[in-house]
Amino acid sequence: METKQTPTVSHFLTLFAIVMVVFLLISCGNNSSRESVGGNMNDAEVALSEPAPSTKAAEITEAQPIERKLIKEGTLTFETADLTQTKKQIMQAIKKHQGYIASENESNTSGSLNHTVIVRVPAKQFDIFIDDATKGIDRFDTKDIQVKDVTEEFVDIQARLKTKKELEQRYLDLLKKSQ
Question: Are 70 and 147 a contacting pair, CB within 8 Å?
Answer without folding.
Answer: yes
